[in-house]
Write a structure and sequence with these properties.
Layout lengths: L1 H11 L7 H8 L3 H13 L3 E3 L8 E3 L4 H16 L1 H22 L7
Helix pairs in contact: 1-3, 2-3, 4-5
Amino acid sequence: MPFLEAMLLLRADPTQQWESAMLASRLYIRERVASQLLADLCTAGISRPCDPPAAHCYRYDPASEVLRERIDRLADLYARQLVDVTHLIHSSLERQAQQFADAFRLRKDE
């Protein structure tokens, strides 16, 4: 969820320069996590580093028009069906957590 929320925040104002402290305060997360989110968004081609002299800043700038359109559709879907999208994301995370826990479960036949 933090990745999605960070992406949507950057998208909301493409001219805004985002530093990790600013993103952290908006998402109520640690600055270290926000810094990693900004780097991940850049790696994913969703944002880019700001031009000098704005060091350590990022701004929304999808690498392609196709990506921009997909993000726009996702933002629209998220705005209209927030609860459903949130449940979908969390159910996937819960399944992954359960699979991880099951890997350590002792079996009777072992």
